[in-house]
Design brief:
The chain has about 240 residues and is an all-alpha fold. It has 6 helices and no strands. It is elongated and about 110 Å long. About 10% of the residues are buried.
């Protein structure tokens, strides 16, 4: 009974792994062919504005929709690679647990059955892939991704792309002679850096206690109201004494 449980779990994880390989293969093929978007991700919208649209406007409209569809392709590919990584690690852990719990003879039988299932699943997915590529007139030769190709994509996805900035970030350089010391006291480097920030510089705390802040603000407002009230009463008393 335990062998059957392990086999069912390994079979389920193997099918998920092959499905993700097939999905990543499809998406990568469409991305490599920049002018092709799969049918399910091809965004088609009509601008709901009155008046006649010029050809320049419609071209820009179509380009924006195409870029949206292409970015969705890239997002799905990264998500598929991440899912493949999770399934692959779970599959390896299950293999280790199975090898420790069953006999070597039973493990060989399980591996042979899983190899047959893997071969059949890949053939089915390859046929679906050929049909989809033929429908979308994709010129690339269809092939289901192998494990090493997925691992290469994993390495590429880990490398962080530099952020594209519209404007160049200005580099603030600290001037050496910004602070002129006219006293006889020698200032340290830290004191000079602090003074170079200007007289309006105020250090901000790393964390703010919102409860304490609200309490202080309410106490300050109460003091102002009390001062205004008693100041107004003193003015009335002074006016009354003068009139008498």
């Amino acid at each position: 009974m335990e062998n059957k449980t392990y086999f069912n779990k390994l079979r389920s994880l193997t099918k998920k792994k092959i499905q993700l390989e097939h999905h990543a293969s499809n998406l990568k093929s469409y991305i490599d062919n920049n002018n092709t978007i799969p049918k399910g991700l091809n965004i088609k919208l009509t601008p709901q504005t009155p008046g006649v649209k010029s050809s320049r406007f419609m071209k820009r409209w179509d380009d924006i929709l195409f870029n949206c569809s292409f970015r969705l392709l890239q997002l799905l590919l990264s998500f598929s690679i991440y899912g493949y990584k999770q399934i692959n690690s779970e599959l390896n852990e299950t293999y280790i647990k199975t090898s420790l719990s069953v006999t070597p003879e039973d493990m060989d039988v399980i591996q042979r059955r899983l190899t047959d299932i893997q071969r059949i699943e890949k053939q089915n997915f390859k046929a679906k892939q050929n049909k989809k590529f033929k429908r979308d007139r994709l010129n690339q030769q269809s092939s289901v991704f192998e494990e090493d190709q997925i691992l290469n994509l994993l390495k590429e996805s880990k490398s962080k792309q530099p952020r594209k900035r519209r404007f160049k970030k200005q580099k603030h350089t600290v001037q050496d002679k910004l602070v002129v010391n006219l006293s006889s006291i020698e200032l340290t480097t830290s004191e000079e850096k602090l003074l170079s920030k200007g007289l309006n510089f105020c250090p901000a705390p790393a964390t703010v206690n919102n409860l304490q802040l609200e309490t202080d603000v309410e106490a300050f407002a109460r003091r102002l109201r009390l001062k205004e009230h008693f100041n107004r009463q003193q003015k009335k008393n002074l006016k009354g004494s003068r009139n008498e």
